[in-house]
Structure formats: C-alpha cells, structure tokens
Write a structure and sequence with these properties.
The complex is a heterodimer of chains A (749) and B (151).
Chain A (H helix, E strand, L loop, with lengths): L1 E4 L4 H12 L7 H4 L15 E5 L2 E4 L4 E5 L8 H13 L6 E5 L17 H28 L6 E4 L2 E4 L4 E4 H8 L7 E4 L17 H5 L15 E6 L6 E7 L1 H4 L4 E8 L7 E2 L8 E7 L2 H9 L2 E6 L3 E7 L2 E7 L6 H12 L4 E6 L2 H6 L3 E9 L11 E6 L4 E5 L4 H12 L6 E5 L13 H13 L3 E4 L2 H6 L6 E10 L5 E11 L16 E8 L14 H18 L4 H14 L10 H14 L10 E9 L2 E12 L2 E12 L6 H20 L5 E2 L2 E2 L18 E6 L16 H14 L17
Parallel strand pairs in A: 4-5, 10-23, 13-16, 21-22, 25-26, 29-32
Antiparallel strand pairs in A: 1-9, 2-3, 3-4, 6-7, 7-8, 10-14, 11-15, 12-14, 16-17, 18-26, 19-24, 20-21, 20-23, 24-25, 27-28, 28-29, 30-31
Helix pairs in contact in A: 3-4, 4-5, 11-12, 14-18, 15-16, 17-18
Chain B lengths: L1 E7 L2 E7 L5 H8 L18 E4 L2 E4 L12 E3 L11 H8 L9 H14 L5 H8 L9 H12 L2
Parallel strand pairs in B: 1-5
Antiparallel strand pairs in B: 1-2, 3-4, 3-5
Helix pairs in contact in B: 2-5
The chains are: A alpha+beta (749), B alpha+beta (151).
C-alpha cells in the first residue's frame, strides 16, 4: 500500500469548496443545451456536497468528477476521472464527468502538451479520490461510533462488517465534507484496481455522435457577433493600409478595424508565438456575411524589418532573430544542405569518433530531410470572448489556458482574477492550439465592440497563418569494424529555425565513439510544437538510418538494435543517456513476437522501427504490398510500454490514430512557401491521408507492468514513419530519405 | 435577403437570408443546428455532410436557394435518441477522438448504407474517402460501418 502526503491544506480545501460550488461552471448556458440521453441519464441529486476540488457527491450517491485538463481527442476527459473514481471506490456508472474550468490554485498543469496529462496528473488524481474515500470512512465511523479503520468501502457503499451496518456515499457526504483533510492518505495497490485497466467508453461519446454543441465554434450567445480576421498573404510582410469602404457597406457588417495583437514593448512568453502582430478584424451578424465582406477588403502590405526579440522561456531570457525577406522552399533546402557541410555546435562527444571513422572497415553516410508541416486541425482556430469593463469571459479550444491567461491579462490590462477561461472540447490540437493568439484577438475584438464575439478563422486563414512544424535536416554517419560492429556514430542535425537533436537519446550510450552536433537557420515563418516535436523527424530519420546500417552489417534489424541496447544496458557509454535500455528492448522483443518477425509472406514487405520519446517506448512493424506502384499498408503491429494502461481501448484508439497520422504526414505532409506565401491554403492542395490510404489493420500490444502511466498522444506517432520507409525499401529496393515520400503523386516512382 | 421555408429534420423552418448563403451557415448561424461542421468551405473534407432528399451532400457550398422543398436531414435529425444503427455502431467501437469530423462521417456512412446495405471494404473506402479525419480514426470508422451493416 502506498502512503502519500496530501498536498491540500485546510485553507486551500475550503477555497476549493467555494469555487467548485460557485456559478463558474454553470455560467455557460450553451452547455445546458446538451440534453442527456433518455436511457443513460442518471437521476440528478437534489443537493451536492463538495468533498474537494476534484469531486462532489450528491445525496443520492451520484458523483461528479471534474476533469482538469483540456480534451482534444486524447480521451483524458474519461481517463483522468477514472483514476479519481478508482481511489474513491465508486461505481463508474454513477459518475458524471464535467470539464473543470481553468483554476490554477487547485489544479496543476491544465495543459495539453508533451503527452504528460496522465503522467503528471497520476498522483494528484489518485490523491483526490483517496482523500474523499478517507473522509467518507471517517464520517461513517463517527456516525456509527466505530473505529474508522474498520470501515470498508465497495463501489460507493460504506460497510462495517462487525455490526453489519452499511450506507451509500450520498447518505454521509454532507458530514464527510467537513471532516478535516488528513496529512497523508493511503493509495490502493495496483492489484486492487477495478476501474483502471478496464476499457471505459468516451464520456462524451453520445454527444459527439448526435452532434451536440461541444466545440468552441458551436458557441451561441444572445447578441453574439461573428468576427474574422484578414492577415498579410506572406510571411515577411506586414499591414500597411486598409481600405475597408466596400466591406463596411456590405450587408450585416458592424465594423472593420485593425487589431494589434501585442504591444510593442511586451516581452513574449514561450507560447506567445504570433503569426502576424497586426491583423484586420471584420465583425458582423453572420458568418456568411463576414466571409463575403472579408473578400471586399483592399489591403496594402510592406516588408517587415529585420528584428531580434527577447522572449522568456519559463524564466530564461532568450533571443530570437527574425530576418526580413520573402522566403522560398527551394532556398530553404539549399541553405540546409550548405549548413550541413559547415562546422556545427558540438552537443555531445564520447570516445574518439575521428579516429574511429578513420580506422573503420566501412562507413555509411546518409542525409534525411523533412518539410514544414501545417497542423490542419479539423476545427479551424476560433474563440469566444465577452470582455466588459468588469470582466473577461472566454471560451473555446486551447491547449495551455494558464499561459494564455497571463498573456491576455497583460494585453487587455485586466487582472487574471477577472478573467474566466472555459475549456471546450478541441476539434484537434496537435500543438497548434498551444499558441492562442486568436484568443487575444477575440478578446480585443469583443472589447472594441462591447459585445460577445465569436472569432472564427476560415480554413485558408488557419492553414496560411500557421505556427508550422519546422523544416529539418539530418546527416548520419556510422562506422563498422571488420566484424561489422558499430564502432562510431555521428549525427549532425539542423533545421529552420530549430535543430531536432536530442543528443542523449539512443544510440548514444550504446556506441564507444559518438558525436552529436547541430546548427540552425533563422526564419520569419512562425513555427512551434507539432505532435512529438523534433522526435517527429528524428525517429523517422534515425530509425531509417539504423535499418540501413543493420543491412550493411549483415544483421537482422531487430537483432542489431537489441545488441546495441544490450550494450547500453550492461556497459553504457556516458552518464546522461535518457532512456532505459531494458524497456526499449522490451518493446522490440514484444513486437518481434506479436508480428511473427522473420516469417515471410508472398509479396508482403516489412519494416521495423522503435523509438522512445515523451516517456513512452514504442516499437512498430509495418507490412505493406505494392499494387501497381501504390503502397497498400496491410497491417501495423505496435508494441508499447507506457506503464499502467488506464483505459486500454482508448489507449489503443489513440495509438491507432498516431499510426495513421504518422503514415499520412510521412507520405504526403508538405507545406511549401514561395516569396513568403504558404502555397497550400486548403485541403484541395494540402494532401491529408484518407480512408483508402490508411492501414487495413492496426494491432496494439501493451507491455504489462506496474510502472506509473505515461502518455500516448505523441509516442506512437514518430517511429511509424521509419517503419514505413523501411518497408518501402524492401518493396522497391529504394531508400526513402526525403519526406514527403509520395507528396502529390499517386504512386511511387 | 429572401425568405425560405426549409424542411429540416421533419420540421418547417423559416429563414430570411441572402439566397447565396450555404446551407451550412443557415444551419449553424440561423437555426442553431451546430452538429454540422465547417471544415474547409470548398466541399473537400466532408465535415459538413448532410442529407438532402436522402442523399449525402456537402452543405458548405450548397446555396440555400437551391434546396426548394427537398427534405434536409442533419445529424440532429438522424435519429430521435442517437440510436440510428450507425450512431450505435460508432458508440460500440468508441470511434471518436477529437470528434469534430465524426458527425460528417456518420452522415456519409448512413447514406452509404442506405444506398448499399452491405458494402465491401473497397466500397466503404471509396464512399468515405471524401471525409477527412485528422485524428486518424479510419480503422474504427470502417469497423463501425461493418457493424452497422450487419444489422
């Protein structure tokens, strides 16, 4: 049994009580429009008793659990409350889940990012449930006049075996709410889990399939206006002048004005990346009218100046150079090749790589590239805002509300206490909604209009004012000795504007002579987090390269990796290696077994890949056939070690999604620029993987262990690109070094 | 502006809008039927799929003036309580991730099964290729369509 110190003191507990019971969560009438389903609706209690910031119990035993983090399809809105319910020991059928508001005093890290929700929420969620259970037992013990340790619980019912007494949680919830919060509390043993480790359906499943309003773009309010923005057509340009006379005269238009998204003297925080610092807002009665008026705007633009801005990366001041000019994809790739040939910054060096390469029996050198990518969330960027002199009410999809709240507070000059941000379901995030400049834009427009406003981006705005995945480049060299042992490894990576290097990742630690170095190129194109930042390129490149090295060494690609991992486990090189070789090897061994690796089928080409990022280990085997030059992916086998799997079917779904997304971006994903203009503005030009191109089957296997859970929103995404490249090589005899592998083509060639 | 009487989900609804307004925005802005989603505005992503006269159509490029007396069904009207076989299959397979595209996927799948109650894998892929799911739930969508088809 684990005993943990509780992190609530009485004071914060009381505040929690007051907040959780306040009008904040009920303020949004559009949510009330979500009718519960006939059959599954629970009888609602007459009275709620708030036990702590995460949960309240009704007099009839129904429990409401608040899900702290935003939901963007990772299914945390089901998985996080499951953890609370487990420790509370309640019947999942009697649980109602609500999205928590942004509440930085009582929840930590209300973020989507880094696949960290379960990992970092694990202890707090368990504690919230365990504390409530403890308080219920205490209250029951007092009521019955028995020692609290004799009171047991089972699925929402308290029992005292000796006296045969029992009662439901609801009957004692009122008394439990005033039991002092203990200094420490016992957590369950993993073997006693009844909810964790069992598949539970998405709590919003019915609302999704019946089209009820869950998303930010669905918000409707009395007197609400619709706003859109117009922005410069190219990176490297800024707004010079606007002639809005025609737009203003169009039906349904209320106002047209420019919006300065940040003040000149504002020091940006890490997630304050803003595509265009000044945009034009068009405000009107309906979306169609605003869309039409937007087309009637006449705007002039001028070149931006070369600038260097200081920004704050969680306490560290950093500088970012933004060059003037209109950039081109062709020039980007030429410049990356050029930089790859120049001296770079050494990030790690083990042994004597220079000598090892000189004395090698065989040296393999290969270069890999990948382009900028647009996130392309299916729900275009949007936000609701109602800013008055007294308060700012905001609602919509965003990944990092806590950080955005500070930015907004500085911009509109209102203390955070007067700002209320409600989190709606995200119609996709993948990193793009970490940069919530559109929330600030919505608030400024509402402030100017003195009215509730819903800002929505058109698809074209969404795609052409992106905060893109950077373009990357990596050159690897491997040295084999006469016995085909890997004796030296050199990686030199770079990108626009960041390097994808993680110098302490595998195969660092497994090779005596190792060199990792990198370089960067500045750009004025805005970039940011994109599902599994940096790993989303490095896994593809490195795991393709290792496949080629294994082949040159005459070794089976899984066996080759396992040999290296065994070296890293038994006699690691260096001290900073940031992976556990045993768990890494574990997923490779599991995928080897589950995919029947080594068994060949007529016409089927297989590729393998494995990667560790965001605290989770993933290995994949991809099987494909070529049909008239078109790759048809028959099956992807995944082996995953993410510790305890909280909600297996949901974890499987998320892993399947990562696999499809990874294959799609490796085959087709590509944002190009000409004279600063993003050349793709909608899905007619930007190719996204579609039904017929997805794998016919995906099998997901989890390593069973009792390690605290880690996330899945990112880790299964990067390695599949290399599994695909390696399978394509076996099918075609050709190695694939440059993404996208297919681009706009229908077939390979 | 012009007046239109639309037959939506078995109910007559009056709107006074620009005749060129796409049905998508009439539904979302004027009738508060927000289950039909905006994804691309150029009829290539499928998020805005509705049924017009029983046939799946993209509502984002369909002017309201072209509807006339044809019956429109949106996701809100596909069934009374979310119990259309396709919706039930979607829940059984817990298809959704972010869920944004799923109403369009469901409307397209429902129209497919009406036209072809037992589609082959190739037919499913062909019919569903116009509906993008950025979360990548295609494998589950296909499984759910097969489940619904078996009923």
């Amino acid at each position: 049994m684990t005993v943990v110190k509780t992190s609530y003191n009485r004071r914060s507990f009381l505040k929690t009580t007051a907040l959780a019971g306040g009008g904040m969560m009920l303020g949004f009438s559009w949510l009330a429009g979500c009718k519960p389903s006939g059959k599954e609706a629970l009888a609602m209690p007459k009275e709620w008793f708030k036990i702590n910031g995460y949960l309240k119990i009704g007099e009839n035993g129904v429990v409401t659990i608040l899900s702290p983090n935003p939901e963007g399809g990772q299914n945390v809105k089901t998985s996080m409350p499951m953890i609370v319910a487990e420790e509370l020991d309640v019947d999942w059928k009697k649980v109602i889940v609500e999205q928590a508001p942004l509440d930085t005093e009582h929840f930590t890290r209300q973020f989507i990012g880094g696949s960290q929700a379960l990992r970092q929420g694990w202890q707090a969620l368990r504690m919230a449930g365990a504390l409530a259970r403890h308080m219920l037992r205490e209250a029951a013990a007092q009521a019955w006049g028995v020692p609290p340790e004799e009171v047991t619980t089972e699925a929402g019912v308290l029992h005292h075996k000796k006296s045969g007494k029992s009662m439901g949680y609801g009957e004692i919830a009122s008394a439990a709410a005033s039991v002092p919060v203990p200094k420490e509390v016992q957590l369950k043993d993993g073997k006693d889990f009844k909810i964790i480790g069992t598949s539970r359906k998405n709590v919003d499943g019915l609302k999704i399939v019946t089209g009820q309003p869950l998303f930010g773009s669905d918000i409707q309010r009395e007197g609400m206006l619709i706003a859109m923005i117009a922005h410069p057509p190219a990176f490297g340009l800024k707004l010079k002048s606007v002639d809005d006379s025609a737009a203003r005269a169009m039906p349904g238009i209320r106002d047209v004005f420019t919006v300065k998204v940040i003040q000149d003297d504002y020091e940006k925080q890490f997630f304050d990346t803003i595509t265009f610092p000044e945009v034009v807002a068009i405000v009107g009665n309906s979306t169609w009218e605003v869309m039409n008026a937007k087309k009637a705007l006449k705007m002039e633009f001028e070149p931006i100046e070369d600038t260097t801005e200081t920004y704050d990366r969680f306490g560290t001041k950093l500088k970012r150079h933004i060059p003037a000019g209109l950039e081109n994809t062709t020039a980007h790739f030429e410049k990356m090749s050029e930089l790859a040939g120049r001296p770079a910054q050494v990030k790690r060096k083990d042994g004597d790589p220079e000598t090892a390469f000189k004395n090698a029996a065989k040296v393999i050198e290969r270069t890999y590239t990948a382009p900028f990518l647009a996130h392309n969330c299916m729900e275009p960027m949007n936000f609701f805002a109602h800013v008055t002199a007294e308060k700012a009410e905001l609602a919509g999809p965003l990944q990092k509300p806590e950080l955005t709240e500070k930015t907004l507070s500085a911009r509109i000059g209102m203390p955070v206490e007067k700002i209320d941000i409600q989190m709606t379901r995200l119609g996709g995030g993948y990193g793009r909604r970490s940069y919530a400049h559109w929330l600030v834009e919505a608030a400024l427009i509402s402030q100017k209009m003195n009215a509730p406003v819903k800002l929505i981006y058109t698809r074209e705005d969404d795609m052409t004012s992106g905060i893109y995945r950077p373009a990357y480049h990596a050159t690897f060299r491997a040295a084999l000795d006469a016995d085909n042992n890997l004796v030296a490894y050199h990686q030199k990576t770079g990108g626009i504007p960041e390097s994808p290097l993680h110098e302490n990742r595998f195969p660092a630690g497994a090779v005596d002579n190792y060199l990792a170095e990198d370089w960067t190129i500045d750009t004025n194109i805005t970039v940011g987090s994109f599902r599994a930042p940096r790993s989303n390129f490095m896994a593809a490149a490195e795991q393709s390269f290792l496949d080629e090295v294994a082949e040159a060494a005459g070794k089976d690609p899984i066996e080759f990796r396992l040999e290296l991992l065994n070296r890293a486990k038994t006699n690691p090189v260096g001290k900073d290696n940031d992976y556990e070789a045993e768990r890494y090897a574990g997923v490779l061994e599991l995928v080897r077994e589950k995919s029947n690796w080594g068994k060949t089928s007529e016409g089927v080409s297989r590729g393998v890949s494995a990667y560790f990022c965001h605290n989770t280990y993933v290995a994949q085997v991809l099987d494909l056939v070529l049909e008239d030059g078109k790759p048809v992916i028959q099956k992807v086998h995944c082996a995953i070690d993410c510790g305890i799997v909280v909600n297996p079917d949901a974890a499987t779904n998320l892993s399947e999604g990562c696999v499809v997304d990874g294959i799609g971006n490796a085959l087709y994903g590509n944002m190009t620029f000409r004279d600063g203009v993003p050349e793709k503005s909608n899905f007619d030009k930007y190719r996204i993987i579609r039904h017929s191109e997805a794998p016919k089957a995906i099998e997901v296997h989890f390593v069973k262990n009792e390690i605290a859970p880690t996330g899945l929103g990112e880790p299964p995404y990067p390695p599949v690109m290399a599994a695909l490249a390696n399978a394509l090589y076996r099918a075609t005899g050709k190695r694939f070094y440059d993404q996208p592998f297919l681009g706009e083509q229908g077939v390979l060639g | 502006m012009a007046n239109f009487t639309l037959n939506i989900n078995g109910k007559k609804q009056q709107v006074d809008v620009d005749p060129a307004t796409p049905v998508l925005w009439v539904l979302r802005d004027h009738l508060n039927l927000v289950g039909t989603k905006y994804g691309c505005g150029i009829a290539v992503c499928g998020s805005c799929t509705i049924h017009v006269g029983g046939v799946a159509m993209r509502s984002c490029m369909l002017p309201v003036s072209q509807i006339g007396s044809q019956e429109i069904t949106t996701i809100e009207g596909l069934s009374e309580n979310g119990d259309h076989p396709v919706q039930k299959a979607w829940l059984e397979h817990d298809v959704a991730q972010c869920g944004y595209c799923q109403t369009g996927q469901i409307m397209n799948a429902a129209a497919l099964l009406k036209a072809s109650p037992h589609p082959s894998d190739e037919e499913i892929e062909g019919a569903m290729n116009g509906n993008i799911c950025r979360c990548g739930t295609y494998v589950r969508i296909k499984a759910a369509i097969k489940t619904a088809s078996a009923r």
